[in-house]
Amino acid sequence: MSESKSTFVRQLWRQVALMQELSAQEQALQEAVRDREWEALQAIMRRMTETSEDLGRVETERIRAYQSLADAADRHGSVEFPVLLARLPEDLRSEISDAYRALKIAVLQLKSRTSGIDTYLRSTITTMRGVMRELYPEHATPVYSRNGSGAFTGGQALVVNHHL
């Protein structure tokens, strides 16, 4: 049980570090998009993919370590996190709580950064579509109804002078 405890805490802290790294990469991604540095953007996206894959592996290891802890604490192995935490010694409980709290903060920080770029990109796309519809209504994409049929929202041809 001692090995699974230390592995679980170690995996929590590794996740915190990877989340913080991903958050920093997200910030760099936002700056590359803002500055229109497309080559830098591609490099950042590759690093973010690698970090995300590392995060997935650490998550799998953390789940395994937690399951080992749960198995040791309860013969059925289905004990929930707060119950498991209450069964642990005070020093370990404090250590796990600190790591878990740091992980939650790192997740919230990453969500905040991600929502920032999401908002920026959505507003940019909406603006671009609006401009395209105004300038080239005949090339505007159709709006689809619930039954799947498409209809163009504008772009009807106008005859300005038919008396030539």
Helix coverage percent = over 70%
Please give the count of helices: 4
Which sequence of strands runs across the widest sheet? Answer: 1-2
Q: What is the overall pLDDT average?
A: 83
Number of self-contained structural domains: 1
| Oligomer status | single chain
Shape, per Cα inertia axes: elongated
Question: How would you classify the helix and strand content by structural class?
Answer: mainly alpha
Radius of gyration: 26 Å
Count of DSSP strands = 2
Q: What is the H/E string?
A: HHHHEE
Could you characterize the architecture of this molecule?
The chain has one domain. The chain is 75% helix and 2% strand. It has four helices and two strands. It has helices at 2-35, 38-73, 81-87, 90-135; strands at residues 143-144, 150-151. It has a two-stranded antiparallel sheet. β1 and β2 form a beta hairpin. The chain is elongated, with a radius of gyration of 26 Å. The relative contact order is 0.12.
Short synopsis of the structure:
With 164 residues, the chain is mainly α. The protein has helices spanning 2-35, 38-73, 81-87, 90-135; strands spanning 143-144, 150-151.
Topology:
Blueprint: H1 2-35, H2 38-73, H3 81-87, H4 90-135, E1 143-144, E2 150-151
Antiparallel strand pairs: 1-2
Helix pairs in contact: 1-2, 1-4
Key structural traits:
164 residues, mainly alpha, two-stranded antiparallel ribbon, 75% helix, elongated
